[in-house]
Amino acid sequence: MSLTDDQLDRYARHIVLREIGGEGQRKLLGSAVTLVGAGGVGSPALQYLAAAGVGRLRVIDDDIVSLDNLQRQILFGTADVGRHKAEVAREASNRLNPDVRFTETRERLTAGNAAALLTGAEVVIDGSDNFATRLIVSDTCTALRIPLVSAAIGMFQIQVGTWRGWEPDRPCYRCFVGDAFDSDDCDNCAELGVLGAMAGIAGSWAAMEAIRQIVGFGGEAVGKVHIFDGLAPAMRTLKIAKDPGCRACGR
Description:
- By secondary structure, the chain is an alpha/beta fold.
- The protein is 36% helix and 18% strand.
- The chain has helices at 5-10, 12-15, 21-29, 42-52, 85-96, 114-118, 131-144, 173-177, 189-192, 196-215; strands spanning 32-36, 56-60, 101-105, 123-126, 148-154, 157-163, 224-229, 234-239.
């Protein structure tokens, strides 16, 4: 794939990076990323991926925009209240970059449809807000051998991790969180609150990790969880061991 003159201009700041260059930009233009959720994480992630020239984007989200989303979900404005998030995401992607082919999926991801919805993605970003969905996404990505970037926010904390659990000695997301809890139980920002700007950091970070998986730059991020504390502020990184007894990726 050769880059057009317009693309050379649009992606010039990527192309001059030694770690990306023209070849890396061509990889992005030929890639496919699926986002599970267009909320706090998905809103900024989608915009940076579209701007970066990811060739195919899919958003899976059955929710509609509500007024209390607007404090942190920067993809949406007041006029979007009551509209489908996936529809607004498609319009934003089209506005940002005509190079991107966008697919909107206005349905909830379940164990029954996950494989069909995630097949074909080169990377999946999961920004869903409950463990039940997160574990379905993780198990499906492990089975389909799709790199997964999971990102979560709560109050003043962010967690971002990259997973390729089908590989020897690489953990999956289930290795990190386990399965000994009620998978429907998950703290939510309606009860605990969240600083809106934390969503921007989490979504941008998730987009960067997805691009890392596509292009292959910098240090190895797989099997690590980066935790950012906005109150301190401070960051720490945990290296997660593969669980031999994990029912998704263990022996």
